[in-house]
Amino acid sequence: MPELPDLSAFSHNLQKKLKGKTIKNISIHTTKKLNASRGEFEQALKHQTIEKVERNGKELYFTTKDGTVFALHLMLRGQLFVDNKEHKSAVVEILFDDDTRFVMADYQGLATIRLNPEEPDAPDALDGQVTLKYFSDKLAGTKATIKNFLLDQHNLRGIGNAYADEILWDARIAPFSICSKIPEEQVKDLYHSIRKVLTHAEKQILQSNPDIISGEVRDFMLIHNANRTESPDGAKIHQKMAGGRKTYYTDEQDLYK
DNA sequence: TGGCATGTTGGCGA
DNA sequence: CTCGCCAACATGCC
Questions:
Q1: Whole-number Å distance between alpha carbons of A161 and A139
Q2: Cβ(A44)–Cβ(A114) under 8 Å?
């Protein structure tokens, strides 16, 4: 449920909490698709010291001093805790040498942990390698709708359902526009809106929730927000299902077909 | 109360 | 091959 800006905020705070701590024990309880055995995880991570925590797409990457990485994906319902409580649906528990306990829980059992994930095939939405040229070339070559394009992690990684709507409104492009039909000028607007909306959201989240490491903050959203009926400029917000997800948009957004 | 919200995967049909 | 859509996963929330 948390999206890119939430995850960026979590990584910021987790790094503050966990950097320099050494893993005493790691236990993996339930997860359907591990890319290594429990023994391999333990072997690779025991006695390792956390060097940095960063967001990569919709995952959090934890890198240790020797360069080993484990990646957490919260999927729909994953939650993170740094505390000493028992968590009923813990997926992964990591105990550090100072008895700090870090838990990823998910009652739905979909959250995952991966050891040394391979290089992803698409860049992170905020990565410097996503240039305007990369972005516009990619759009020119696809006939899908722009909303589906933004959600497809094979194009850009990190954007989810809620922020896709916020970004498209910011760029004034209708979600059902065909990628290859969007004019150059609007592609440029969209490119800048991606960065603007996502980085601004992270700032707002950290401002209102300075210590956040789990959950999501949505109250500042302008369009993808069940509590709002109108955009900031007074246009009625429409709702429509697309790909099984609810899409919010207004008539201020131009449709390119 | 019960439908909605979320991401990913894999399968189906156009 | 491309694209849209659907089901499945499971439960807290309004």
A1: 19
A2: no
Q: Closest nucleotide (CA of A179 to C1')?
A: C3
Can you name the residues that pair with A249 across neighbouring β-strands? A238
Tens of pLDDT, residue by residue over A2-21, are 899 999 999 999 999 999 99
Query: Are A70 and A115 in contact, with CB atoms under 8 Å apart?
Result: yes
Is pTM beyond 0.70? Reply is: yes
Residues A92, A104: contact at Cβ < 8 Å? Answer: yes
Q: Chain C positions under 7 Å from a protein CB?
A: 2-12
Q: Are A30 and A91 in contact (CB under 8 A)?
A: yes
Provide, in whole angstroms, the distance separating residue A137's CA from nucleotide C2's C1'.
Answer: 17
pLDDT digits 0-9 by tens, A157-205: 999 999 999 999 999 999 999 999 999 999 999 999 999 999 999 999 9
How many of the other CB atoms lie within 10 Å of CB of A95?
Answer: 17
Please report, to the nearest 10 degrees, the dihedral formed by the alpha carbons of residues A13, A30, A71, A20 taken in order. Answer: 50
Beta bridge partner(s), residue A90: A105
